[in-house]
Amino acid sequence: xxxxxxxxxxxxxxxxxxxxxxxxxxxxxxxxxxxxxxxxxxxxxxxxxxxxxxxxxxxxxxxxxxxxxxxxxxxxxxxxxxxxxxxxxxxxxxxxxxxxxxxxxxxxxxxxxxxxxxxxxxxxxxxxxxxxxxxxxxxxxxxxxxxxxxxxxxxxxxxxxxxxxxxxxxxxxxxxxxxxxxxxxxxxxxxxxxxxxxxxxxxxxxxxxxxxxxxxxxxxxxxxxxxxxxxxxxxxxxxxxxxxxxxxxxxxxxxxxxxxxxxxxxxxxxxxxxxxxxxxxxxxxxxxxxxxxxxxxxxxxxxxxxxxxxxxxxxxxxxxxxxxxxxxxxxxxxxxxxxxxxxxxxxxxxxxxxxxxxxxxxxxxxxxxxxxxxxxxxxxxxxxxxxxxxxxxxxxxxxxxxxx
Length: 404
Ligand code: 7TS
Fold this sequence. Notes:
This protein is an alpha/beta fold. The protein folds into 2 domains: about 5-25 and about 295-404, Aspartate Aminotransferase, domain 1 (Alpha-Beta Complex); about 50-290, Type I PLP-dependent aspartate aminotransferase-like (Major domain) (Aspartate Aminotransferase, domain 2, 3-Layer(aba) Sandwich). It is about 40% helix and about 15% strand. It contains 14 helices and 17 strands. The chain has helices at about 5-10, 35-50, 60-80, 95-105, 125-135, 150-160, 180-190, 210-215, 240-245, 280-295, 295-315, 340-350, 365-370, 385-404; strands at about 15-20, 20, 25, 85-90, 115, 140, 165-170, 195-200, 215-220, 230-235, 255, 260-265, 320-325, 330-335, 355, 355-360, 375-380. The strands form 5 sheets. It has a 7-stranded mixed β-sheet with strand order 4-10-9-8-7-5-6, sandwiched between helices. Helix 2 (about 35-50) packs antiparallel against helix 10, helix 4 (about 95-105) packs parallel to helix 5 (about 125-135) and helix 11 (about 295-315) packs parallel to helix 14 (about 385-404). The mean pLDDT is about 95. The structure holds ligand 7TS.
């Protein structure tokens, strides 16, 4: 279905070697690689129309503004966001979450409860803990079952009239499991609670429709979806964004400034203080074009094939245990082999050219839940192949032989 050779030719980094071996990049959950179309877009911006945006009467500034706002429209359409003004450009997923949590005192009062899940990345835990401390609210946690899925019975029991906010990731970065966010959001709304879905791991691997999901806020990292680092997106329902106070003060986010009183600009500018990552936004637009050309349904189907194949192959290694071994998941496999330390395995297979992440994956509570120090995590993208998976499994086998 996908022309993998053609796709791979678009990613210059896939031609390089690491430690004398062809690079096999299986750390896509940390960051994706970038196609030449995105890399060239950054060069094009700085070469031909670098200027500050929204403020110049001169042609160059207008040109840069048109490209930046054009990218906003591409992002809007990609996630089925109703209006461009609901696409807030941020520096990344962490910034997007903090922008909401820092102003969420307008939604969360003293004595209220905020529900997070046990499989969150630290960036979707700590900002909410900080909010709870600030306003005197309590953090509640949806437990995770042995198979890596959320304990939905417990979730429904946690909901009560004090629940003010529910925050859950769409796909867990530590386990790869897809969470039932439609059910989670609908139940939260029945209790009058706001919702934020962390889409860092979903945005590049499935078709996301923010309106169908009905989330109040949805957050995205550009670098996980073939875009550059330093650019992300915060989507919010219009009413929710209007209620939320700005995260940062400065240029561009104001309507009128005087020493007596400042009024804020409308959306999206209220949340975009200062000069944004102009090149990053424009290049994210190019990443969206690239993903659209391949097709998110095609990407999801192909990556699922890789997931099934790699799961089978990893299970052939004696002592291998996969965490979150369920069918409804992204192409992320978190595993250990017997009592071998994940770091040792990762270091040895790196010598053989295979890049995986090892450790707690910024999700320490997940590791505590499974009583392990960390895992080896192989995470795939649409430019990976079954042949690469074979090389990884051989490398794993060698590592296990050396360490046992
Ligand atoms: N939420 C989830 C679910 C994530 O996977 C990540 C990054 C973040 C939030 C933070 O995104 P950032 O772009 O602001 O850093 N996850 C990972 C990872 O799994 N390995 O490295 C980064």
